Amino acid sequence: MVRPRNVNRAKTPKEIPDWEQEEFESRTDIKKAAQAVTDLGEKLAELSESKIKSLGLTDELLNAILLLKRMDKGPALKRQKAFIGKLLRKNEDLIVEIKEKFQEEEQKAQQQNAHFHRLEKWRDRLVEEGDDALNEFLESYPQADRTILRQAIRNAQKEAEQNKPPKSSRAIFKYLRGLEW
């Protein structure tokens, strides 16, 4: 049987997925949107197995991602990534949920980094300024132990004067981190 050439096989609107029905300027924009979903699948594969399972993915998508995690280099890797992108594009709600969870994780990481920066600043102030900074710190955080901090500060100052490794500074940071403010 001979197929006719140039047969227009346009999809009806019911067959076109929602993500393809969005208003795009060009075919390039459509490809970029599809690639963004495929990249989301790759980010999923970078997560730990327990986190992937906690996302509530469909069995087919979960198995595809776990298979991608086990794959090495080669052309099959690219096909698997494309397959995961295809599975994700079938379920727009899932894409939104996954993006929200990634944003939550990123926000938590930023908050933790900001918290650690505050602790580092306090540690540096305590070592540099001594008792003045310690008194100010204890006003803000009365649950801290003055004697432990004072001893660690003195040791850190001695280590800094003698150009030794900052063992006591690390101990101060660890103590501050353990206060759980």
TrEMBL record:
UniProt-listed NCBIfam families: PRK05255.1-1
Species, as recorded: Hydrogenovibrio marinus
An annotated Gene Ontology molecular function: rRNA binding
UniProt-annotated stretches for the region Disordered: 1-23
Gene name as annotated: darP
Described purpose of this protein according to its UniProt entry: Member of a network of 50S ribosomal subunit biogenesis factors which assembles along the 30S-50S interface, preventing incorrect 23S rRNA structures from forming. Promotes peptidyl transferase center (PTC) maturation.
Family indicated by similarity: Belongs to the DarP family.
UniProt entry tagged with the keyword Plastid: no
SUPFAM superfamilies, per database record: PSPTO4464-like
Signal sequence, renumbered to the chain: none
The protein's name in its UniProt record: Dual-action ribosomal maturation protein DarP
One of the GO biological process terms: assembly of large subunit precursor of preribosome
Gene Ontology CC annotations of this record: cytosol
